[in-house]
Each structure stands twice: as C-alpha cells, then as structure tokens.
C-alpha cells in the first residue's frame, strides 16, 4: 500500500500513485490498524 502525504512540497503526480493520501501524519494512527487486518 502506498500512502501519500499531502504536504506543501508534495507533487501531484506522486500523490496520484498513492492508494491513500493524508494531510497530517497523525492520520496514520487511524489508517495503519485498518491496513494491518
């Protein structure tokens, strides 16, 4: 799984390849448990 981080330096073509795009690293806490199942 590819997680893209939508920070100010993110490039749109990189985010287009991501399975999930997050705006804040704290969002990983909610994503990782669901992905591990």
Automatic annotation (TrEMBL):
The lineage of its organism: Bacteria, Bacillati, Bacillota, Bacilli, Bacillales. This is 5'-nucleosidase.
């Amino acid at each position: 799984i590819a997680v893209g981080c939508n920070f100010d330096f993110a490039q749109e073509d990189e985010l287009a390849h991501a399975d999930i795009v997050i705006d804040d690293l704290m969002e990983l806490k909610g994503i990782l448990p669901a992905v591990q199942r």
